[in-house]
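Person: At home tonight, work slowly through the protein below, taking as long as you need, and write a paragraph about the fold.
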Amino acid sequence: MEQIHSVMMQIGALKNRLLETTKRIQALDTQVMQAARIRQDRLTKPQGSLGQLEELSIRLAGMTGKVRPRFPRKAVMVLAADHGVAAEGVSAYPQAVTAQMVLNFLAGGAAVNVLARQVGARVIVADLGVVSELPEHPHLQRRKIGYGTRSMTQGPAMTTQEALCAISAGIEMVMDEAKQGLDLLAIGEMGIGNTTAASAIVAAISGCPVADVTGRGTGIDEEGWRHKVACIEQALTLNHPDPTDALDVLVKVGGYEIAGLVGVVLAAASLRLPVIVDGFIASAAALLATELCPHARSYLIAAHSSVEVGHRVILERMELVPLLNLNLRLGEGSGAVLAMPLIDAAAALLDEMATFEEAGVSESEAR
């Protein structure tokens, strides 16, 4: 009885932390956006000629509360965890790859590391629930909630307490990094089996048939895909996640790294930090975050359109237009980091371009 009381007390405290974080998330600063739009319309170009970059720069102004925002301090957070559903054979790769790839991130050898070096972003790697014990490393954040989730085909993937602990870990990561200086944040993940979890989340929240939101993940064949769909359908039938309760969906069919990213998104939004969302799994986490707090959506930038079919459903639900379409499906934050130069470009154009008055250029007579 005493143990149950202790658990309930911790759940209450964790829920309060989540609520406090969401309460700090504000709508975009419309006055700043209007000032940015006026400046954008006075720059030496036909209005609208820079397309999405113009609207992006105005959104960035609204997110940050700065008419001319710049982003010198960049980071990408890569959260890793294992999934119990991997034991059902839903991935082309063995579960041991999760730990091996975490070591690759730490060694600087993964795609996200290469791309981050190109844009001057620091890579932050965290273990939220890798099955194995990882060796000591000065750049590994140890925030393990458990040694992999349980299989969603046998019951809930995690407990409410575990989900809230993972969300809280993500919040703490952002708050800690913000103290070091942070202007722009990308999110990524690593976890064998996590496209299965993401598909289950999207199916649960959207109500779409599982087959319509489930892709081939790491490259499974037709038979493997059908088995993956069947596993997700079994999990949804068994667990009955409530589509109106994002936390319940997370608990029933999510993952520790997905839960951690929910916390990352919410904490970043509470600090008015733009969040670049990578592909399918990161977007599933962002979807959960926006279901918990709709205002958080305003701080999201969709990096790209993933090959995973369920990604389109997420983007449409969150009303986000991706910046890139490169047929990516790697994850680990790679696509989000690729979008950073475009964000820098949008901000630089708004900040550095001369206005018609400054340049002494004649305006269109139609203006």
Q: What stands out?
A: Strands lie at 74-81, 121-129, 140-142, 184-190, 275-277, 300-302. Residues 2-23 form the longest helix (22 residues). Residues 198 and 284 are 6 Å apart (CA to CA).
